[in-house]
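Obj: model holo form, ligand = zinc ion.
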Amino acid sequence: MSRSYEARMLRRAAKEKEEEELRRQQDLQDIRYMKEALRQAAKAAAIGEVPIGCVIVHEGKIIGRGYNRRNTDKSTLAHAEITAIRKASKALDDWRLEECTLYVTLEPCQMCSGAIVQARIPRVVMGCRNPKAGCAGSILNLLQMKEFNHRVEITEGVLGEECSNILKRFFADLRIRLKNEKNEKIHKKETDLPEDQS
Ligand SMILES: [Zn+2]
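Output (holo structure tokens):
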């Protein structure tokens, strides 16, 4: 084996090790910030909203947080991502969020995906997919259309199970609540009926 070949192999191995370490660190960061997004989602659940949460990170710092408040605010615009984007833009004093990563527990809808592209966010990390409304790969992939001048790197499945479980739990609780309410109504109707006079 020639000396230069050996040196080349050693350099390559060192580079691969370095890249692996960077990936490992990014994975750890992704988990850390997704936990923050989950914390936002829990805030939504606490006020009876579908639990979806989002954070935006710039240079290792969270500069925007948001959670779903659509019913509370009676606004289509009150999605977690839109709120987080608004806050991040305020923090950076810029509509461009070019060096930011957006973490969201559920795949963004068409409105939020559009806003992400508009804000030039380079990377999105999402927890679980939304097969019925997701526009980052499920129904459409607005984040990676070659026709647009900006495309977004997507990392998916980070704490995917937790992100999906918080939704499942919310809907299971909601079903129980609605069932109980219905039963109460039926019970009330029965007791309200006039006594049999015969
Ligand atoms: Zn949305």
